[in-house]
TrEMBL record:
It comes from Haliaeetus albicilla. One of its GO terms (cellular component) is NELF complex. It comes from the Eukaryota. Residues 558-584 are annotated as: Disordered. Signal peptide: none annotated. This is NELFB factor. The lineage of its organism: Eukaryota, Metazoa, Chordata, Craniata, Vertebrata. One of its GO terms (biological process) is negative regulation of transcription elongation by RNA polymerase II. InterPro entries: COBRA1. Pfam families: COBRA1 (PF06209).
């Protein structure tokens, strides 16, 4: 018997059951093999008197004994599996687990025998506490570890953080990759963007579901995952880990796993914020609730602010808070009210501030709310409101019958203070960027071109972050017709995008995405110069080269075919078009 055969009979000898080796020995040392075989069959067969007369009947039908024994064995194993699952639910708790522990003790030596393994695994799965010794044996054997149920793995993981980390790590990588793929997706649309899926839909994602299953009701494992997320967020500053932190909690909330939800101090806050994210707006009632949670942080419990800040740092939360802020500012213009007089607006700023300060708070371990700069409320927000007023005034002015003096031009300058705020104040920058997204979505070309120069230098280069560029490229599709105008393209590409393309690969990618979508709208001369400017360098990554090649192919297809060229009724033959060299 080879190693495969040996595995088939693993552990039988310890139980005093004869196996293939015993038969081999018997046959090697006997004088009459046929008699020896018959005796072996009698001793080790199914010991039912009524069966002895029936077996020859099967022989007449040409049914091999192996087939018969195999079917009996399969049937018995099914019955045993059913019985184990039943024992796990009946009688007093101590008694049922005592039965299962006895069964495990008897059967564990056969755990490597493929035909019996499912039974042993089933017994372990139903034991809330598998004996430590058995867990160690399972952990030490790769195949056994792989074969055991997640219920058993949880018991192994909770005392082996490194092993659990190895299991979780590829899932976290996959999650971040999925987010980045969405941000760089070739489908550019104002209707379907990064923030379109509802929270409930997002929680159905593969990674969140797998992590939820791995954690089960185990608070220790949940804490470990949160620790991994905090560590990775600190190491990479990647805000998608904050999204996963909130999604995981809400996924456990959906399954009503109170064992975890009741001990996570962020649960109710996250639940309330989740409803706001679903509506993409923080209404007054929920604003009061959220404020209650923030005001309710007691002395000595400030550490919860670190978790709350991470929940608020989730881009989906920031998006909701920023959209709500812009909406509030517009309402205030209509009500002739100043920002400082609106408690709802101040609460939104407080939460934005907490979210944007998450990294610093977790890094410094100083758990207190960041101080809000008064100038943000007294100067910056009124300035944004004045832009809204400028638009109203201009629109009204356009409708008035023009006097001799001619139409009043759209204001083209921006206050220096606006640019300075965007460079120096994180919250002002975030709100300013969302205001620019808002006017782009309204197809307000004048306001867009007026404010665009302020984006070249922003706080921590936020205007060149993937989320902003993803949303901006989507909204720019609404201004598609403007791309035919030299002035518009020069402001947008030369004045903004191309200032960062060479130093920021992600910007290069976003511009190529935009052109792949809108190239047919761009004036030919401008398109040609952009194609030259965007040619990848040796240092460019694969993604940029791939996008550039796609763009080149599209532009090649747009060129008139030679047949069309010869038909042009012209005295002089036009010069043949020279295709631009594709990137090497």
């Amino acid at each position: 018997a080879g190693p495969g055969q040996a595995a088939m009979y693993a552990g039988l000898q310890e139980l005093g059951v004869a196996n293939g080796e015993d038969l081999k020995e018997t046959l090697t040392n006997c004088t009459e093999p046929l008699k020896a075989i018959e005796q072996f069959q009698t001793e080790n067969g199914v010991l039912l008197p009524s069966l002895q007369s029936a077996l020859p009947f099967l022989d007449l039908h040409g049914t091999p004994r192996l087939e018969f024994h195999q079917s009996v064995f399969d049937e018995l194993r099914e019955k045993l599996l059913e019985r184990v699952s039943a024992i796990a639910l009946e009688g007093k708790v101590e008694e049922r687990y005592k039965k299962l522990e006895d069964l495990l003790e008897k059967s564990f030596s056969l755990v490597k025998m493929p035909s019996i393994q499912p039974v042993v695994m089933c017994v372990m799965k139903h034991l809330p506490k598998v004996p430590e010794k058995k867990l160690k044996l399972v952990m030490a054997d790769k195949d056994l570890y792989k074969a055991c149920a997640v219920e058993v793995k949880r018991q192994i993981w909770q005392d082996n953080q490194a092993l659990f980390g190895d299991e979780v790590s590829p899932l976290l990588k996959q999650y971040i990759l999925e987010k980045e793929n969405t941000l760089f997706s070739n489908d550019i649309s104002v209707l379907h963007n990064f923030f379109s899926p509802s929270p409930k839909t997002r929680r159905q994602g593969e990674v969140v579901q797998k992590l939820t299953q791995m954690i089960g009701k185990n608070v220790k494992l949940y804490d470990m995952v949160l620790q991994f997320l905090r560590t990775l967020f600190l190491r990479t500053r990647n805000v998608h880990y904050c999204t996963l932190r909130a999604e995981l909690l809400m996924s456990l909330h959906d399954l009503e796993i109170s064992e975890i939800c009741t001990v996570d101090p962020c649960h109710k806050f996250t639940w309330c914020l989740d409803a706001c994210i679903r509506e993409k707006f923080v209404d007054n009632k929920r604003a009061r609730e959220l404020q209650g949670f923030l005001d309710g942080v007691k002395k000595g419990q400030e550490q919860v602010l670190g978790d709350l800040s991470m929940i608020l740092c989730d881009p989906f939360a920031i998006n909701t808070l920023a959209l709500s802020t812009i909406r509030h500012l517009q309402d205030l213009v209509g009500q002739d009210t100043l920002p400082r007089e609106s408690p709802d607006l101040l609460l939104l700023l407080r939460m934005l501030s907490l979210g944007q300060g998450a990294w610093d708070m977790i890094d410094s371990q100083v758990f207190k709310e960041p101080k809000m700069e008064a100038e943000l409320i007294t100067k910056f927000l009124p300035m944004l409101m004045s832009f809204v007023v400028d638009d109203h005034t201009y629109n009204v002015d356009q409708k008035l019958p023009s006097e001799e003096k001619g139409p009043i031009p759209y204001p083209s300058t921006i206050p220096e203070a606006f640019t300075k705020f965007l460079q120096e104040n994180r919250i002002a920058c975030e709100i300013g960027l969302y205001y620019i997204l808002h006017i782009t979505k309204q197809r307000n070309k004048n306001a867009f071109l007026r404010l665009l120069p302020a984006l070249v230098e922003t706080f921590s280069d936020l205007a060149f972050s993937d989320i902003f560029l993803h949303l901006l490229t989507g909204n720019l599709t609404l201004l598609g017709d403007e791309f035919a105008l030299e002035e518009f393209c020069t402001s947008l590409f030369d004045g903004f995008f191309l200032t960062a393309c060479s130093r920021k690969e992600n910007v290069h990618r976003h511009v190529l995405r935009l052109l792949l979508h809108l190239h047919h709208k761009v004036a030919p001369a401008k398109l040609e110069s952009l194609q030259k400017a965007l040619e990848p360098t040796k240092q460019s990554g694969e993604a940029v080269k791939e996008l550039y090649n796609q763009l080149t192919e599209k532009l090649e297809l747009r060129k008139p075919s030679p047949a069309e060229v010869t038909e042009t009724p012209s005295m002089e033959l036009p010069l043949p078009t020279v295709p631009t060299p594709a990137s090497r």
